[in-house]
Amino acid sequence: MTASTTADAQTAVVASPESVKIHAVQTGLVRVRHRQMHGEGPGVLRVPMTFIDREWGEWLPIYAWVIEHPEGLIVVDTGETARTAQPGYLPTWHLYYRRGVEFQVAPPDEIGPQLENLGHHARDVHTVVLTHLHTDHAGGIHHFPKSEIMIERHDFATASGIAGRLRGYLPNRWPDWLRPNLFEVEPVPFGPFDQSLAVTKAGDVRIVPTPGHTPHHVSVVVQTRGVTYFLAGDTSYNQQLMLDGVVDGVAPDARAAKETIRRIQEFARQKPLVYLPSHDPESAKRLVRRETVSMMKP
Questions:
Q1: SS3 for 123-134, per residue?
Q2: What is the C-alpha to C-alpha distance for residues 72 and 67, in angstroms, rounded to an integer?
Q3: Integer Cα distance of 120 and 69 in angstroms
Q4: What is the pTM of this model?
Q5: Residue 13 has pLDDT above 80, yes or no
Q6: Span 261-271, mean pLDDT?
């Protein structure tokens, strides 16, 4: 299986009555061990059990999200870079990169060329929001030197420096010009979330805290008249795992991850919610169909 596909297969579009469009842009493929997607083992044993797992999961898409909004073009996550195929780009001294993950990304799959397929250019992007700084979400940052890049303040600190590299981040691959807008969510309740932060002046695109996969992971919510879109990052690897309340194998705090999943489930009970994790093979289809989460009332 190769990462390169046709532009039609890589990009899905949905339009809302407010003339807000969301594009799911596939920036290649990734596969991880099965236990990373579906964590197993008690407490602190979950992470090491992930590393010793011999079973690979299936190849999964790496989605970035492009929001065409009246206030400007917004990108949520930047996907991965084709440089992962270059010898030495990924740190083979790190156990995770040596045996826990594989990528298939070709140059045309990167977010920059994909934006051009949509009739845009990276320089047109007003704001980039990163759900977290793992390389498959931040690998395409280099395409956006002219954009405001929003990163949660504590997530940036966790990913930076030698300590960040030991945790599996790649701060040494970030562009030298990177001067992000380091934000913290505000005490503004939004649905079941105690905090949020508006990205747009209209308040229809908001950031909510969704810790679990990383300690300071965030998600982006796009509200329209008919449905609400939840750009979930890695809160789960697919919708069914979220519905089943399954925590992944690399989340450092399983309790926080379970609470995040509970809040997402509650959100889906409160309003029609299209749930869009970044590695769910069905996310692009759900986006096009405006397919909402079916939740039983408690």
A1: HHEEEEECCCCC
A2: 8
A3: 13
A4: 0.93
A5: no
A6: 97
